[in-house]
Amino acid sequence: MNITPYTRIFITGCGGMLGKAVYEKFSAHCQVKATDIDINENWLEYADVRNYHATLKMAAEYSPDLIINLAALTDLEYCEKNPEESWKTNALGAENMAMISKKLKVPHVYISTAGIFDGEQEYYNDFDEPNPLSIYAKSKYYGEKYIHSKLERFFIFRAGWMMGGGIKKDKKFVNKIFKQIQAGNRTLYVVDDKLGTPTYTVNFADCMYQIVQTDLYGLYNMVCGGSCSRYDVAEEFVKLLGLENEIKIEIVDSGYFKTEYFAPRPASEKLVNLKLESRGINYMRDWRECLRDYAPLFKMALRTAAPREMVKEEAVTT
Ligand SMILES: NC(=O)c1ccc[n+]([C@@H]2O[C@H](COP(=O)([O-])OP(=O)(O)OC[C@H]3O[C@@H](n4cnc5c(N)ncnc54)[C@H](OP(=O)(O)O)[C@@H]3O)[C@@H](O)[C@H]2O)c1
Fold first, then answer.
1. Residue 206 near residue 28 (C-beta atoms within 8 A)
2. Residue 217 structural domain
3. CATH value at residue 115
4. DSSP letters of 108-170?
Protein backbone atom coordinates (compact mmCIF):
# COMPACT_ATOMS: atom_id res chain seq x y z
CA MET A 1 0.00 0.00 0.00
CA ASN A 2 1.37 3.36 -1.05
CA ILE A 3 0.29 6.27 1.14
CA THR A 4 -0.81 9.22 -1.00
CA PRO A 5 -2.69 12.41 -0.07
CA TYR A 6 -5.90 10.51 -0.95
CA THR A 7 -5.23 7.54 1.35
CA ARG A 8 -7.76 7.32 4.19
CA ILE A 9 -6.81 6.00 7.61
CA PHE A 10 -9.21 5.28 10.47
CA ILE A 11 -7.58 5.34 13.92
CA THR A 12 -9.09 4.34 17.28
CA GLY A 13 -7.62 5.30 20.67
CA CYS A 14 -5.81 8.19 19.01
CA GLY A 15 -6.13 10.60 21.95
CA GLY A 16 -3.31 9.02 23.96
CA MET A 17 0.46 9.35 24.09
CA LEU A 18 1.12 7.24 21.00
CA GLY A 19 -1.93 8.61 19.19
CA LYS A 20 -0.48 12.12 19.19
CA ALA A 21 2.65 11.00 17.32
CA VAL A 22 0.71 8.71 14.98
CA TYR A 23 -1.78 11.45 14.14
CA GLU A 24 0.98 14.00 13.50
CA LYS A 25 2.92 11.60 11.27
CA PHE A 26 0.07 10.26 9.16
CA SER A 27 -2.02 13.43 8.87
CA ALA A 28 0.99 15.17 7.30
CA HIS A 29 0.77 12.71 4.38
CA CYS A 30 -2.84 11.55 4.02
CA GLN A 31 -6.45 11.76 5.25
CA VAL A 32 -6.99 10.64 8.84
CA LYS A 33 -10.13 10.08 10.89
CA ALA A 34 -8.82 10.03 14.45
CA THR A 35 -11.10 8.77 17.21
CA ASP A 36 -11.06 8.07 20.96
CA ILE A 37 -13.42 7.97 23.93
CA ASP A 38 -11.45 10.87 25.40
CA ILE A 39 -11.95 13.85 23.08
CA ASN A 40 -8.96 15.90 24.19
CA GLU A 41 -8.12 17.45 20.78
CA ASN A 42 -10.21 19.27 18.20
CA TRP A 43 -9.12 16.72 15.57
CA LEU A 44 -10.63 13.79 17.52
CA GLU A 45 -14.09 12.26 17.14
CA TYR A 46 -15.82 9.87 19.51
CA ALA A 47 -15.56 6.13 18.93
CA ASP A 48 -15.55 3.36 21.53
CA VAL A 49 -13.86 0.12 20.42
CA ARG A 50 -16.11 -1.84 22.81
CA ASN A 51 -19.08 -0.84 20.65
CA TYR A 52 -18.79 -3.00 17.53
CA HIS A 53 -21.87 -1.74 15.68
CA ALA A 54 -21.33 2.00 16.18
CA THR A 55 -17.62 1.77 15.30
CA LEU A 56 -18.31 -0.40 12.26
CA LYS A 57 -20.88 2.14 11.02
CA MET A 58 -18.46 5.03 11.49
CA ALA A 59 -15.56 3.20 9.85
CA ALA A 60 -17.69 1.92 6.95
CA GLU A 61 -18.98 5.45 6.24
CA TYR A 62 -15.41 6.73 6.19
CA SER A 63 -14.32 3.90 3.86
CA PRO A 64 -10.70 3.69 5.01
CA ASP A 65 -7.71 2.08 3.27
CA LEU A 66 -6.15 1.11 6.61
CA ILE A 67 -7.35 0.75 10.22
CA ILE A 68 -5.03 1.42 13.16
CA ASN A 69 -6.23 0.41 16.63
CA LEU A 70 -4.38 2.22 19.43
CA ALA A 71 -7.19 2.00 21.99
CA ALA A 72 -6.33 0.37 25.30
CA LEU A 73 -6.46 0.70 29.05
CA THR A 74 -2.74 0.93 29.80
CA ASP A 75 -2.65 1.46 33.57
CA LEU A 76 -1.65 -1.94 34.97
CA GLU A 77 -3.07 -1.34 38.43
CA TYR A 78 -6.37 -0.07 37.00
CA CYS A 79 -6.57 -3.23 34.87
CA GLU A 80 -5.97 -5.50 37.89
CA LYS A 81 -8.74 -3.70 39.77
CA ASN A 82 -11.11 -3.59 36.78
CA PRO A 83 -10.60 -6.85 34.90
CA GLU A 84 -13.93 -6.86 33.08
CA GLU A 85 -13.43 -3.36 31.71
CA SER A 86 -9.87 -4.30 30.70
CA TRP A 87 -10.95 -7.44 28.85
CA LYS A 88 -13.69 -5.48 27.10
CA THR A 89 -11.35 -2.70 25.98
CA ASN A 90 -8.09 -4.49 25.32
CA ALA A 91 -9.29 -7.90 24.15
CA LEU A 92 -12.86 -7.49 22.89
CA GLY A 93 -11.94 -4.04 21.51
CA ALA A 94 -9.03 -5.60 19.60
CA GLU A 95 -11.32 -8.34 18.30
CA ASN A 96 -13.96 -5.79 17.25
CA MET A 97 -11.46 -3.66 15.33
CA ALA A 98 -9.94 -6.73 13.66
CA MET A 99 -13.44 -7.91 12.61
CA ILE A 100 -14.19 -4.46 11.23
CA SER A 101 -10.95 -4.48 9.22
CA LYS A 102 -11.85 -7.90 7.82
CA LYS A 103 -15.37 -6.80 6.94
CA LEU A 104 -14.08 -3.66 5.20
CA LYS A 105 -11.29 -5.69 3.54
CA VAL A 106 -8.50 -3.39 4.70
CA PRO A 107 -5.16 -4.07 6.42
CA HIS A 108 -5.07 -3.77 10.20
CA VAL A 109 -2.53 -2.39 12.69
CA TYR A 110 -2.53 -3.44 16.36
CA ILE A 111 -0.08 -2.36 19.05
CA SER A 112 1.02 -4.96 21.54
CA THR A 113 3.42 -4.81 24.43
CA ALA A 114 6.72 -6.20 25.68
CA GLY A 115 4.81 -6.88 28.90
CA ILE A 116 3.34 -10.13 27.50
CA PHE A 117 6.52 -12.00 28.51
CA ASP A 118 7.14 -13.40 31.99
CA GLY A 119 10.67 -12.03 32.37
CA GLU A 120 12.24 -15.44 32.99
CA GLN A 121 14.79 -14.74 30.26
CA GLU A 122 16.58 -11.45 29.70
CA TYR A 123 15.89 -10.81 25.99
CA TYR A 124 12.86 -11.72 23.89
CA ASN A 125 12.78 -11.89 20.12
CA ASP A 126 9.68 -11.95 17.91
CA PHE A 127 9.47 -15.77 18.10
CA ASP A 128 9.75 -16.27 21.86
CA GLU A 129 6.69 -17.65 23.58
CA PRO A 130 4.69 -15.09 25.60
CA ASN A 131 3.49 -15.90 29.10
CA PRO A 132 1.61 -12.83 30.32
CA LEU A 133 1.42 -12.22 34.07
CA SER A 134 -0.99 -9.31 34.54
CA ILE A 135 -4.58 -8.66 33.40
CA TYR A 136 -3.25 -5.91 31.12
CA ALA A 137 -0.71 -8.25 29.50
CA LYS A 138 -3.18 -11.14 29.21
CA SER A 139 -5.82 -8.97 27.56
CA LYS A 140 -3.27 -7.48 25.13
CA TYR A 141 -1.93 -10.93 24.27
CA TYR A 142 -5.46 -12.11 23.50
CA GLY A 143 -5.63 -9.31 20.89
CA GLU A 144 -2.38 -10.52 19.31
CA LYS A 145 -3.58 -14.12 19.09
CA TYR A 146 -6.96 -13.19 17.65
CA ILE A 147 -5.47 -10.99 14.94
CA HIS A 148 -2.78 -13.54 14.12
CA SER A 149 -5.30 -16.30 13.65
CA LYS A 150 -8.09 -14.41 11.88
CA LEU A 151 -6.46 -11.82 9.61
CA GLU A 152 -4.06 -12.11 6.71
CA ARG A 153 -3.14 -8.48 6.15
CA PHE A 154 -2.12 -7.28 9.60
CA PHE A 155 0.76 -5.65 11.42
CA ILE A 156 1.22 -6.26 15.13
CA PHE A 157 3.89 -3.96 16.50
CA ARG A 158 5.13 -4.71 20.02
CA ALA A 159 6.27 -1.60 21.90
CA GLY A 160 8.35 -1.46 25.07
CA TRP A 161 8.45 1.23 27.76
CA MET A 162 6.60 4.01 25.99
CA MET A 163 7.85 7.57 26.23
CA GLY A 164 6.23 10.44 24.36
CA GLY A 165 3.16 12.63 24.15
CA GLY A 166 4.55 15.41 26.37
CA ILE A 167 3.47 16.72 29.73
CA LYS A 168 -0.24 16.57 28.94
CA LYS A 169 -0.42 13.03 27.55
CA ASP A 170 2.57 11.01 28.76
CA LYS A 171 1.15 8.66 31.42
CA LYS A 172 4.32 6.71 31.94
CA PHE A 173 7.72 6.70 33.64
CA VAL A 174 9.39 9.81 32.16
CA ASN A 175 6.46 12.07 32.99
CA LYS A 176 6.06 10.50 36.43
CA ILE A 177 9.68 11.36 37.16
CA PHE A 178 9.12 14.84 35.74
CA LYS A 179 6.05 15.47 37.87
CA GLN A 180 8.02 14.65 41.02
CA ILE A 181 10.82 17.01 40.01
CA GLN A 182 8.34 19.72 39.08
CA ALA A 183 6.68 19.30 42.46
CA GLY A 184 9.99 20.13 44.12
CA ASN A 185 11.12 16.64 44.98
CA ARG A 186 14.91 16.42 45.25
CA THR A 187 15.26 12.70 45.95
CA LEU A 188 13.82 10.14 43.56
CA TYR A 189 13.43 6.49 44.48
CA VAL A 190 13.84 4.37 41.38
CA VAL A 191 14.13 0.62 40.82
CA ASP A 192 17.06 -1.00 39.05
CA ASP A 193 15.61 -4.52 39.07
CA LYS A 194 13.19 -3.91 36.19
CA LEU A 195 14.74 -4.12 32.73
CA GLY A 196 13.29 -3.11 29.40
CA THR A 197 13.59 -1.29 26.10
CA PRO A 198 12.24 2.27 25.90
CA THR A 199 10.15 3.12 22.85
CA TYR A 200 9.81 6.72 21.70
CA THR A 201 6.35 7.41 20.25
CA VAL A 202 7.66 9.75 17.50
CA ASN A 203 10.20 7.18 16.31
CA PHE A 204 7.60 4.39 16.60
CA ALA A 205 5.09 6.36 14.48
CA ASP A 206 7.80 7.04 11.83
CA CYS A 207 8.68 3.37 11.71
CA MET A 208 5.02 2.36 11.53
CA TYR A 209 4.46 4.83 8.68
CA GLN A 210 7.21 3.23 6.63
CA ILE A 211 6.36 -0.40 7.36
CA VAL A 212 2.61 -0.21 6.64
CA GLN A 213 3.59 0.81 3.12
CA THR A 214 5.22 -2.57 2.55
CA ASP A 215 3.43 -5.89 2.19
CA LEU A 216 5.65 -7.45 4.87
CA TYR A 217 2.66 -8.26 7.06
CA GLY A 218 3.04 -9.93 10.43
CA LEU A 219 4.15 -9.49 14.01
CA TYR A 220 7.16 -7.36 14.89
CA ASN A 221 9.02 -6.38 18.02
CA MET A 222 9.51 -2.63 17.53
CA VAL A 223 11.49 -0.96 20.30
CA CYS A 224 14.32 1.53 20.49
CA GLY A 225 17.89 0.30 20.41
CA GLY A 226 19.79 -0.24 23.65
CA SER A 227 18.21 -1.81 26.67
CA CYS A 228 18.32 -0.51 30.24
CA SER A 229 16.81 -0.42 33.72
CA ARG A 230 14.34 2.14 35.05
CA TYR A 231 17.27 3.64 36.95
CA ASP A 232 19.20 4.21 33.69
CA VAL A 233 16.24 6.09 32.19
CA ALA A 234 15.81 8.26 35.29
CA GLU A 235 19.54 9.03 35.44
CA GLU A 236 19.69 9.97 31.75
CA PHE A 237 16.55 12.10 31.99
CA VAL A 238 17.78 14.01 35.05
CA LYS A 239 21.08 14.65 33.22
CA LEU A 240 19.25 15.93 30.14
CA LEU A 241 17.33 18.33 32.38
CA GLY A 242 20.71 19.55 33.68
CA LEU A 243 19.74 18.60 37.24
CA GLU A 244 22.28 15.88 38.00
CA ASN A 245 23.82 17.97 40.79
CA GLU A 246 20.49 18.84 42.36
CA ILE A 247 18.52 15.61 42.16
CA LYS A 248 19.58 12.51 44.02
CA ILE A 249 18.43 9.16 42.68
CA GLU A 250 18.18 6.42 45.29
CA ILE A 251 18.16 2.89 43.95
CA VAL A 252 15.52 0.63 45.48
CA ASP A 253 14.09 -2.73 44.53
CA SER A 254 10.54 -3.38 43.32
CA GLY A 255 9.49 -4.49 46.81
CA TYR A 256 9.68 -0.83 47.82
CA PHE A 257 6.64 -0.12 45.66
CA LYS A 258 4.68 -3.31 46.24
CA THR A 259 1.62 -1.51 47.62
CA GLU A 260 1.46 1.24 45.03
CA TYR A 261 2.43 -0.85 41.99
CA PHE A 262 0.87 -4.19 42.88
CA ALA A 263 0.26 -5.55 39.36
CA PRO A 264 2.69 -8.34 38.44
CA ARG A 265 5.47 -7.11 36.19
CA PRO A 266 8.19 -9.18 34.48
CA ALA A 267 11.74 -8.60 35.74
CA SER A 268 12.84 -8.21 32.13
CA GLU A 269 10.79 -7.08 29.16
CA LYS A 270 13.74 -6.38 26.89
CA LEU A 271 12.80 -6.92 23.26
CA VAL A 272 15.07 -7.54 20.29
CA ASN A 273 13.87 -6.35 16.86
CA LEU A 274 15.03 -9.55 15.18
CA LYS A 275 12.54 -9.51 12.30
CA LEU A 276 12.78 -5.78 11.56
CA GLU A 277 16.56 -6.09 11.56
CA SER A 278 16.63 -9.19 9.34
CA ARG A 279 14.28 -7.63 6.81
CA GLY A 280 16.29 -4.41 6.69
CA ILE A 281 13.40 -2.30 8.00
CA ASN A 282 14.53 -1.52 11.53
CA TYR A 283 14.13 2.26 11.61
CA MET A 284 14.08 2.40 15.42
CA ARG A 285 16.77 4.61 16.98
CA ASP A 286 18.77 4.32 20.19
CA TRP A 287 16.65 5.19 23.26
CA ARG A 288 19.20 7.69 24.59
CA GLU A 289 19.11 9.63 21.31
CA CYS A 290 15.31 9.62 21.42
CA LEU A 291 15.22 10.79 25.02
CA ARG A 292 17.55 13.61 23.97
CA ASP A 293 14.90 14.67 21.45
CA TYR A 294 12.08 14.33 23.97
CA ALA A 295 13.59 15.93 27.11
CA PRO A 296 13.85 19.60 25.97
CA LEU A 297 10.10 20.22 26.27
CA PHE A 298 10.28 19.18 29.93
CA LYS A 299 13.33 21.40 30.45
CA MET A 300 11.44 24.32 28.97
CA ALA A 301 8.46 23.67 31.25
CA LEU A 302 10.74 23.69 34.30
CA ARG A 303 12.26 27.01 33.23
CA THR A 304 8.90 28.69 32.78
CA ALA A 305 7.27 27.25 35.92
CA ALA A 306 7.41 29.12 39.21
CA PRO A 307 9.48 27.32 41.82
CA ARG A 308 7.31 25.21 44.06
CA GLU A 309 7.70 24.08 47.62
CA MET A 310 9.33 20.79 48.36
CA VAL A 311 6.66 18.13 48.60
CA LYS A 312 6.46 14.72 50.15
CA GLU A 313 8.76 12.29 48.36
CA GLU A 314 6.80 9.95 46.17
CA ALA A 315 7.46 6.57 44.66
CA VAL A 316 8.16 5.96 41.00
CA THR A 317 8.46 2.64 39.33
CA THR A 318 6.62 2.47 36.03
N1 LIG B 1 1.98 3.12 27.24
C2 LIG B 1 2.81 2.09 27.16
O3 LIG B 1 3.78 1.98 27.93
C4 LIG B 1 2.60 1.03 26.11
C5 LIG B 1 3.57 0.04 25.95
C6 LIG B 1 3.37 -0.95 24.99
C7 LIG B 1 2.24 -0.94 24.20
N8 LIG B 1 1.32 0.03 24.38
C9 LIG B 1 0.12 0.00 23.52
O10 LIG B 1 0.16 1.13 22.68
C11 LIG B 1 -1.18 1.50 22.33
C12 LIG B 1 -1.37 2.98 22.55
O13 LIG B 1 -1.31 3.23 23.96
P14 LIG B 1 -0.72 4.58 24.56
O15 LIG B 1 0.61 4.29 25.07
O16 LIG B 1 -0.94 5.70 23.60
O17 LIG B 1 -1.69 4.72 25.84
P18 LIG B 1 -2.74 5.85 26.19
O19 LIG B 1 -2.05 7.15 26.24
O20 LIG B 1 -3.46 5.36 27.40
O21 LIG B 1 -3.72 5.85 24.93
C22 LIG B 1 -4.75 4.93 24.75
C23 LIG B 1 -6.01 5.69 24.39
O24 LIG B 1 -7.08 4.75 24.20
C25 LIG B 1 -8.22 5.33 24.82
N26 LIG B 1 -9.25 4.34 25.12
C27 LIG B 1 -9.44 3.63 26.26
N28 LIG B 1 -10.53 2.87 26.13
C29 LIG B 1 -11.03 3.08 24.89
C30 LIG B 1 -12.15 2.59 24.18
N31 LIG B 1 -13.00 1.72 24.75
N32 LIG B 1 -12.36 3.01 22.90
C33 LIG B 1 -11.53 3.91 22.32
N34 LIG B 1 -10.47 4.44 22.96
C35 LIG B 1 -10.21 4.01 24.22
C36 LIG B 1 -7.65 5.96 26.06
O37 LIG B 1 -8.57 6.84 26.66
P38 LIG B 1 -8.50 7.07 28.26
O39 LIG B 1 -7.26 7.86 28.50
O40 LIG B 1 -9.77 7.80 28.57
O41 LIG B 1 -8.44 5.69 28.88
C42 LIG B 1 -6.44 6.66 25.51
O43 LIG B 1 -6.76 7.92 24.97
C44 LIG B 1 -2.09 0.61 23.18
O45 LIG B 1 -2.51 -0.48 22.40
C46 LIG B 1 -1.18 0.10 24.28
O47 LIG B 1 -1.60 -1.14 24.81
C48 LIG B 1 1.48 1.03 25.30
1. no
2. 8-164+199-221
3. 3.40.50.720
4. EEEEEEGGGS-SSSSEE-TTSPP---SHHHHHHHHHHHHHHHH-SSEEEEEE-EEE-SHHHH-
Q: What is the pLDDT of residues 250-261, one digit of tens each?
A: 999 999 999 999
The rounded Å distance from CA 202 to ligand 1 centre is 15
Pocket test residue of 20, 36, 56 for ligand 1, highest count of atoms within 8 A of CB: 36
Task: Report the nearest-CA residue for atom 40 of ligand 1.
Answer: 38
Answer whether residue 178 is part of any domain: no
Indicate the number of domains in the chain.
Answer: 1
pLDDT band at 318 (very low <50, low <70, confident <90, very high): low
Closest CA to ligand 1's atom 10: 111
Give the whole-angstrom CA distance, residue 303 versus residue 18: 26
Q: How far is CA 95 from each of CA 67, 81, 106, rounded to the nearest angstrom?
A: 13, 22, 15
The end-to-end CA distance of the chain, in Å, is 37
User: Are the C-beta atoms of residues 69 and 111 closer than 8 Å to each other?
Assistant: yes
Kindly give the pairing relationship between strand 8-12 and strand 31-36: parallel
Q: Is the distance from the beta carbon of residue 17 to the nearest atom of ligand 1 less than 6 Å?
A: yes
Q: Which atom of ligand 1 is nearest to the CA of 69?
A: 45
Dihedral in degrees, nearest 10, Cα atoms 274, 276, 277, 281: 180
Residue 194: inside a domain: no
Pocket test for ligand 1, best of 22, 46, 70 (most atoms within 8 A of CB): 70
In what helix (H) or strand (E) does residue 149 lie, and over which residues does it extend? helix 135-150
Tens digit of each residue's pLDDT (9 = 90 or more) over 150-193: 999 999 999 999 999 999 999 999 999 999 999 999 999 999 99
Identify the pLDDT of residue 313. Answer: 44
